[in-house]
């Protein structure tokens, strides 16, 4: 198939593009400018570049019509303006839906497990409601666009990457936590550290995108959660790797250490079930990849 992908120079998107290529698909990657096209080449991502930013919805729609499937991963994080970023994401989703309506082609969107907010102590499925007043809940409106598009003969799916999507690479959340611990002289968690968040190896997550492209029924959402880990355990793994003590921090203190956005995410009790992806797609995370506790020492060594 000819697959259009956005976000192919990103941490997750580059892995998805490589997985698609390995499966024999021809990949077309939307890039916003020549610098992004150069980065695509430098990263050795096997894709044909298409000059289009997320604001170029007409170009993206035309490219979608020419493709056999679309995988949309790009999300333009805007400091202190989540609503604007989500509005842009919704416009892109709507443009893709309009382009593919009536074709039966596959369209995969991306949000995050964090859109649900606090879940309580039991892992929850994809239909669990978002806690009232949680800021990131507006991203679920975009999920609704994809789900509704299934009624217009578009084979849509939404993937929710984990809060701690990891590998030994240095462009994810875990390296930020390791660097902050080294700078502070201690590895921190918020409060008691008993709250849990989702984690997944980035290669397993890339596999989930490809499985959804190949097998997902229309209108499905999948939690890209390989496991749920206590934030206190994450701090202990970092402390052990760096030979540093572990300490508790308030959310405000954590914001100063990691940035307010990551402090918000790592203060959540966000426990997700992956049973739907296992049952419907045959997804098997962590069968052949490192777990987070294995990657943290590798990250620490690379940052030394």
Automatic annotation (TrEMBL):
Residues 3-223 form the NAD-dependent epimerase/dehydratase domain. GO terms for cellular component: cytoplasm. It comes from the Bacteria. InterPro entries: Epimerase_deHydtase, NAD(P)-bd_dom_sf, NAD(P)-dependent_oxidoreduct. Transmembrane segments: none annotated. It holds the Pfam family Epimerase. One of its GO terms (molecular function) is aldehyde dehydrogenase (NAD+) activity. This is 3-beta hydroxysteroid dehydrogenase.
């Amino acid at each position: 198939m000819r697959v259009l992908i956005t976000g192919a120079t990103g941490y997750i998107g580059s892995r998805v593009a490589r997985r698609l290529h390995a499966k024999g698909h021809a990949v077309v990657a939307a890039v916003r400018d020549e610098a992004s096209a150069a980065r695509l080449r430098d990263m050795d991502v096997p894709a044909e570049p298409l000059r289009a930013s997320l604001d170029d919805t007409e170009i993206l729609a035309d490219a979608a019509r020419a493709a056999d499937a679309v995988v949309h991963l790009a999300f333009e994080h805007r400091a202190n303006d989540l609503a604007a970023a989500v509005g842009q994401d919704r416009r892109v989703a709507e443009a893709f839906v309009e382009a593919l309506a009536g074709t039966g082609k596959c369209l995969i969107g991306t949000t995050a497990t964090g859109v649900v907010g606090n879940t309580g102590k039991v892992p929850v499925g994809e239909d669990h409601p978002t806690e009232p007043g949680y800021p990131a809940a507006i991203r679920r409106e975009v999920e609704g666009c994809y789900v509704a598009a299934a009624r217009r003969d578009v084979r849509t799916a939404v993937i929710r990457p984990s809060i701690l999507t990891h590998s030994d690479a240095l462009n994810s959340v875990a390296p930020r936590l390791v660097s902050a611990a080294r700078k502070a002289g201690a590895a921190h968690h918020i409060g008691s550290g008993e709250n849990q968040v989702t984690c997944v190896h980035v290669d397993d997550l890339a596999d989930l995108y490809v499985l959804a492209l190949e097998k997902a029924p229309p209108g499905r959402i999948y939690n890209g959660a390989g496991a749920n880990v206590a934030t206190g355990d994450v701090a202990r793994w970092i402390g052990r790797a760096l030979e540093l003590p572990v300490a508790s921090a308030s959310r405000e203190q954590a914001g100063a250490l990691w940035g307010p956005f990551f402090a918000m995410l790592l203060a959540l009790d966000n426990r997700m079930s992956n049973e739907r992806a296992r049952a419907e797609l045959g997804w098997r995370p962590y069968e052949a990849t490192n777990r987070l506790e294995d990657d943290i020492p590798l990250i620490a060594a690379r940052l030394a």
